């Protein structure tokens, strides 16, 4: 007979083994990549350490008086005048 029970079970078994082999190969490849590439924590820590000192011209650096939007103009102590309805 064309679809003998042994060949059906053998085909299902072969498919299951092939699936497991593919999964194991993927796991091995991912572990090799994890061993080769730096981790995100190390890379982010290095990037943070490299940018810890303020860059010249950085408006967020301490000691630089940058204008604040809606801050009232040149004199920060002056009260804003309400133009009112005209």
- The helix tally amounts to 2
* Largest pleated sheet: none
Q: What form results from the Cα inertia axes?
A: elongated
Weakly predicted, low-confidence segments = none
Radius of gyration: 33 Å
How much of the sequence lies in strands comes to under 5%
Which structural class matches the secondary elements? mainly alpha
The average pLDDT is: 77
Number of beta strands: 0
Query: What is the element string, with H for helices and E for strands?
Result: HH
Separation, N- and C-terminal Cα atoms: 98 Å
Describe this structure as you would to a colleague:
The protein is an all-alpha fold and 86 residues long. The model has no long low-confidence stretch (mean pLDDT 77). The chain has a domain at 5-48. It is elongated. It has helices at 5-36, 40-50.
Q: Topology of this structure?
A:
Layout: H1 5-36, H2 40-50
Provide tags for this entry.
86 residues, mainly alpha, 0% strand, elongated
Short description:
The protein has about 90 residues and is an all-alpha fold.
């Amino acid at each position: 007979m064309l679809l003998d029970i042994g060949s059906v079970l053998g085909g299902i078994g072969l498919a299951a083994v092939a699936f497991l082999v593919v999964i194991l190969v993927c796991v091995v490849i991912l572990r090799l990549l994890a061993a080769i590439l730096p981790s995100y924590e190390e890379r982010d820590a290095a990037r943070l350490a490299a940018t810890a000192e303020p860059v010249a011209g950085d408006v967020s650096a301490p000691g630089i008086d940058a204008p604040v939007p809606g801050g009232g103009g040149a004199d920060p102590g002056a009260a804003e005048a309400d133009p009112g309805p005209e």
